[in-house]
Amino acid sequence: MAKKAGVGVGTVSRAVNNTGYVALETRKKIERAMKELNYTPNELARNLYHKRTGIVAVLVPTVAHPFFSEFLAGVEAELHERGYKTMICSTNKEKNYEVEYLQMLKRHIVDGVITGVHSLNIQEYQNIDKPIVALDRYLGEKIPVVAVDHQAGGRMAAEELFHSGCRSVIQFSQAKQIEAPAQARHAAFEEYLVKRKVKVYSYELERNRFEIEYYLNICKELVEKYSDVDGIFGTDLPVMTYMKAAMSAGKRIPEDLKVVAYDGTKIIEAVYPSITVVKQPIEKLAKEASRLIVNKIEGKEYINRTVELKTELIKGNSTLS
Amino acid sequence: MAKKAGVGVGTVSRAVNNTGYVALETRKKIERAMKELNYTPNELARNLYHKRTGIVAVLVPTVAHPFFSEFLAGVEAELHERGYKTMICSTNKEKNYEVEYLQMLKRHIVDGVITGVHSLNIQEYQNIDKPIVALDRYLGEKIPVVAVDHQAGGRMAAEELFHSGCRSVIQFSQAKQIEAPAQARHAAFEEYLVKRKVKVYSYELERNRFEIEYYLNICKELVEKYSDVDGIFGTDLPVMTYMKAAMSAGKRIPEDLKVVAYDGTKIIEAVYPSITVVKQPIEKLAKEASRLIVNKIEGKEYINRTVELKTELIKGNSTLS
Q1: Which residues of chain B does A237 touch, with a Cβ-Cβ cutoff of 8 Å?
Q2: Which of A14, A250, B131, B166 has its CA 20 to 30 A from that of B62?
Q3: Contacts of B209 in chain A (CB under 8 A)
């Protein structure tokens, strides 16, 4: 092979293993020779040569969740289209996992990371000079964010409940320690309703808790404690669970309780009665995140900013407006 | 480096690139020298050296589905425990994707494949002499299968509906062209009930269709067409969707309609009224599949057989027995 390329064996070794300087012209010669001899023993060698693996890691708290699994499905489809493979990295509440997954960038296991988790501090992301894109999270100047306009989304939900006649509502909110665009939703929701003299109880969910059992315990308590509540707002799973607790206690929807769910994942379509949702365009979020990460990996120009998409109100039978 | 190892540069190149014979003793020397010199430039080079990537591909029809996303979450957790990473490969109905993903084995992109899809013929798997494990599918002698005892599961469901007083039931069944352990469930269900003079309509779902919209159209039709039906059986999503269609048409559960769902994914816990399920131990299935694939990759002894796990009936308020 070295002979074919007209260079020394040591040079080939340096080029293939990336262990020392090899002039661009020489690299090209070696690449040509490799091709002619059908030399590349496997994808690993080729990746080593190009310093790419063609793999993007997607960090989510858990895959077993309608929002994250739909997002992941969308990312995988878009990355596949663009010639990349998708590695799943569930952090399962473990800070250490997030660190470990980010290290994969340095260790050349993946070419880029799309992160939708919230366990590490922003600082730890600042020290990484590799392609990263964030879903619904601020990670500093250098890292683009893909998210919906949560403020508008929160307002849509509030309007819908207000026009359905609600006087006292519960909203499930994200843990306050998370700095995320989604926080704007809770503020906008509360502001709209409080201005109109509607009582708002904000129930702050623990960070990284997505189990229905956890939601069920909370919802049973809330249904008992706040018997005057006539409206509920939150993401799909806590809202479905609250509906179950309320119906089990004899409440009728929408007569006694109005419901708006945020996200509008596909599973919601299988629920009776049909739920009014503020729908996030999950597939579009996934596409945008994938596009941005591939552009970063391939060194293409892009404007480094928050990509903000729109939510949409889709009426079901759980509200009256 | 060659100097440190006391071997020629060409030998190092052959060893690292795996392009020619290098004696085991010499390989060890080189490995030692690499370690001492902290030579390995990155994971890619190390993987190349060991002919491993540490990645397992998991093939599913779609990630955006409660059963597959829970299975995937379980596989990822177990593989992580064992030092492997998880690549997701959704086939999205495309035969070509399945071929492409299997080729990753030959191209050394992944070390093994866990396949839970049903688009290719068995023959195409026979020609691959690499680590493969199947979820709920027969792929010939060489490939271990992880599945539940579907026959017992189907019978459990039939018993429950019979003892709840059903006289006429619908079961949603998998497309018949799929050769899978799950087919035994449909046969056992039907056999038990027909023997006891219960009418059974088996509705065969199209292969690789998992959209709720698809289910909704079918269910609306079935509810209209078979007004005498007093029992329903199928996997979680079609059953949830049927319940929605039936309740929308004024049917009460369990008074007018008894329901048993198969799989018992977590989402079911958020549904009202609570559904009686035949629960698959999804996490255990995932653990077993992961254990088998790692053993295969690492060349460990294992008995090459179907791993059959048990289902469990968990009563909700959708049956009366």
Answers
A1: 270
A2: B131
A3: none
Kindly identify which residue of chain B lies nearest to residue A101, measuring between CA atoms: B85
Closest to A174 in 3D by CA, of A189, A192, A194, A158: A189
Ranges of beta strands (E only) in B197-286 are 199-204, 231-235, 258-263, 276-279
Chain B: give the shortest CA distance to residue A158, in Å. Answer: 24
Distance from CA of B108 to the nearest CA of A (A): 6
Distance, in Å, from the CA atom of A280 to the CA atom of A157, rounded to the nearest integer, reads 13
Residues of A in contact with B280 (CB under 8 A): none
> Which residues, including other chains, have CB under 8 Å from residue B252's CB and lie 6 or more apart?
none
Name the residue among B97, B178, B172 with its Cα closest to residue B134.
B178
ipTM: 0.86
Using alpha carbons, list the distances in angstroms from residue A49 to A63, A79, A260, B178.
Answer: 33, 22, 52, 42
Which tokens belong to A284?
């579009």
Domains of chain B: 2-50 (1.10.260.40), 55-147+283-310 (3.40.50.2300), 150-281 (3.40.50.2300)
pLDDT per residue as tens digits for the range B107-150 = 888 999 999 987 767 777 887 888 999 999 888 888 999 999 99
CB contact under 8 A, B17 and A212: no
Min distance B179 CA to chain A CA atoms (Å): 26
Of A65, A90, A270, the CB nearest to B237: A270
Rounded distance between C-alpha atoms, residue B189 and residue A264, angstroms: 35
pLDDT for the residue numbered A58: 96
Q: Order of strands, edge to edge, in the sheet holding A307-309? A: A307-309, A145-148, A132-135, A112-115, A55-60, A85-90, B85-90, B55-60, B112-115, B132-135, B145-148, B307-309
CA separation for the pair B76, B294 (Å, rounded): 12
Average pLDDT over residues A281-310: 89
Per DSSP, the three-state class of B149 is coil
By DSSP bridging, strand B276-279 and strand B312-314 are antiparallel
Summarize pLDDT for A245-272 with one digit per residue, the tens. Answer: 999 999 999 999 999 999 999 999 999 9
pTM across the whole model: 0.87
Using a CB-CB cut-off of 8 Å, the residues of chain B touching A267 are 66, 212, 267
Which among A12, A53, A267 has CB closest to B44?
Answer: A53
Token code pair at residue A297? 């990996």
Per-residue pLDDT, A19: 58
Contact A212 B237 (CB under 8 A): no
Q: Which of B56, B65, B85 is the best mutation test for A, with the most CBs of A within 10 A?
A: B85
Q: How far apart are CA B208 and CA B174, in angstroms?
A: 9
**Cβ separation A64–B77 shorter than 8 A:** no
